[in-house]
Design goal:
With 347 residues, this protein is mainly alpha-helical. It has 14 helices and five strands. It has a three-stranded antiparallel β-sheet. The protein has a two-stranded antiparallel sheet with strand order 1-2.
């Protein structure tokens, strides 16, 4: 499905992005600029419109898909934080209730806890409950249940993050900073798209580092809650294989460059939309090698476009794939833009 320009402008206006006001949270200025790549955002909006047209989803389809996504999310979110469980071991823990004897007990406990935490944010979204301090503390307590005596409690000591370009605030400042952050979110600022708002919230939350442990896992689930409240599907997954890219983009945000992180989250959101649409519509999926044979572009050039987010490709097992119709549409769009440029030169 493709939108005409009037529809596109209307939807962008509805998401209300890029205004001229500045917002400050404890010295960090959040500036509505062109933070979200236009090409990625356009594709996301188009895909979200198509996905919404499929609602309500078949209950059996939704249950099976969410179950698989929950296992994958649990594995990846914990692996990013150092869990040694494999994907198959995570499945055994969640489906069979097993504890993997050869691995640290906290890894199995962390896996067992995650579905409860996911169910909690789903309930918040379903009941349209605001994200409050109480909800944040409850979510954290579910993530670290039986793992430490600091579950659901703000840290009382200073912390140092290895490799970080900043020092987290003092523990005494955490209640005030969290209150400011949640108030910022509660205002439902119209200056940002939901993806920008969710990504900025994630970054600021990790920057505050309110807990002794579990900050990343809590931040990712809160980010998902924000996106799901805005109609994005369950669940935006950040994979262990992309851990370095994820952390590097977070570090760029620490230095004031938010674009890499926001666009990384945007690509992750697009991937979640693709998972649903591919399951619902069963389109023809091709490799970039196959795509190059349908277009005038080389495999290397298509790979560059994929890495930069210029085409809606997605990666599985270290290999890029794309919908056949999507690459055909991209080539048509590029030809149209080229003709417009040539007409402008002739005038």
């Amino acid at each position: 499905m493709h939108l005409n320009i009037d529809q596109y402008v209307f939807i962008l206006t509805g998401e209300a992005i890029m205004r001229s006001i500045l917002f400050r949270i404890d010295g960090m200025i959040l500036t509505p600029m062109s933070l979200l790549d236009e090409n990625i955002h356009k594709r996301i909006i188009e895909k979200k419109v198509v996905l919404d047209a499929h609602r309500p989803f078949d209950p059996i389809f939704l249950k099976r898909l969410k179950h698989e996504l929950m296992i994958e999310y649990t594995y990846n979110s914990n692996a990013i934080e150092g869990s040694t469980l494999t994907l198959n071991e995570t499945r055994l823990v969640l489906e069979e209730g097993l504890t993997i004897g050869s691995k640290p007990i906290q890894d199995s406990l962390g896996a067992k806890n995650h579905p409860y935490a996911i169910n909690f944010i789903e309930k918040l979204v379903y009941e349209n409950t605001p994200l409050t301090e109480e909800a944040v503390l409850k979510l954290h307590s579910l993530i670290l249940h039986d793992i430490g005596d600091y579950a659901g409690v703000y840290r009382k000591v200073g912390v140092r993050i290895a490799g970080a370009t900043f020092s987290p605030p003092k523990s005494a400042e955490i209640p005030r900073l969290m209150n400011e952050l949640l108030k910022w979110l509660e205002k439902n600022l119209e200056e940002y798209s939901p993806i920008e708002q969710a990504a900025l919230f994630h970054h600021k939350f990790v920057h505050i580092h309110p807990f002794s442990d579990g900050n990343g896992r809590t931040a990712r689930l809160l980010m998902n809650a924000i996106l799901m409240k805005n109609g994005y599907p369950f669940i935006i997954n950040i994979t262990q294989k992309e851990r370095t890219k994820y952390l590097d983009s977070l570090q760029e945000a620490d230095l004031g460059n938010y674009k890499p992180f926001i666009n990384y989250i945007a690509r992750s959101a697009e991937n979640a939309l693709d998972i649903y649409l591919n399951a619902l519509e069963e389109p023809k999926i091709i490799t970039l090698t196959q795509a190059s044979k349908l277009t005038s572009y080389s495999v290397n050039y298509l790979g560059l476009l994929a890495r930069k987010g210029r085409i809606g490709a997605f990666k599985e097992n270290n290999r890029w794939y794309i919908r056949e119709q999507e690459i055909i549409n991209y080539q048509k769009e590029m030809k149209y833009k080229q003709l417009k440029r040539e007409d402008a030169l002739d005038e």
